């Protein structure tokens, strides 16, 4: 008997799962509240680690996998930990994190480009303008209801509708997200020949993590496109800064505990946020001020940081959750999208096998058990990194900076500790 699968939410994890199921010939539909493919796109860079690469390689048809690779950015420099005065603490060379196999390597990609690749070829599967409002059960069938009055019946419903998941709120009301008290302000600085002359190579050639002595931090990473890197630009009618996926840029994010920000920060516009960061990094190396000041108005956004809290096992049924809908995490390890892709790969593999055996419920149970283990471990690691990133503990920050300098001075130890950097 054919299992009808409905995925609520057309984000990274949901679309990857849909691609894998469709490739296997399984009856799947995706219901996305946006009216078009470009309505709610975000224009920042996302890091795909080996877990994410393996999932995309397995779930995407070969031609879309190649298209994904063609959209990724190039990075020539290492990952560097630096002080606010742009002094090296530790340099992680690319050979510690790269792999000759693209399916087990790291990639930088525009969120816009990734979404376009994942959406491609899903005609008749991906249904826009479907705002999920709730579900009801009719025997073994789940009936999903949408704001436009339409419904869809499914034998299995997968909530992949993001951190504010309505599926989760109905299915697991006890699973909630909490405010970490951390606020990030992120922006994009165009990467051109002119900006390369004005900015140091540490900022233009590779990712950098800035560790001042206390209280805040800044992460930057270039997203440099080769001549063939951009996909068909469907966003030309939108903001040329936030939504452009054809131009190279340096993405940066400043973060601190919200007590470091002035009252009323939530009401500031892009220009005000940019000016605020300039004030907060006063005394840092001038290159950082150049990076922030050169970010066009409209490219700077405020991002309050929330995180999920682990929940215990729940009875397996014909409803389950994927990605941020169940294990939303802070962005400080760069693993949220990768964990969602890992979910998609595991659940797809299980459901494809279940089509042969008919044991769909067992396939979902196995997925949920394994997903809870690695998913909430990622949540904990991510929150721990976030707390360290904005720590006001001067002694602890000094110790961490000293540790990085020690690793840099002992290359064999650095290789042992950081050979899996970013893969967790």
TrEMBL record:
Q: Which residues form the signal peptide?
A: none
Q: Does the record bear Membrane in its keywords?
A: no
Domain spans labelled FAD-binding: 3-171, 316-380
A molecular function annotated in GO for this UniProt entry is:
monooxygenase activity
Instruction: Return the InterPro entries for the record.
Output: FAD-bd, FAD/NAD-bd_sf
Keywords for this protein: FAD, Flavoprotein, Monooxygenase, Oxidoreductase
| Pfam families in the cross-refs | FAD_binding_3
Q: Which PANTHER family match?
A: FAD-BINDING DOMAIN-CONTAINING PROTEIN, MONOOXYGENASE, FAD-BINDING
Name the chain's protein.
FAD-binding monooxygenase protein
Give the organism, scientific name: Amycolatopsis decaplanina DSM 44594
Mind giving the lineage of the organism this protein is from?
Bacteria, Bacillati, Actinomycetota, Actinomycetes, Pseudonocardiales
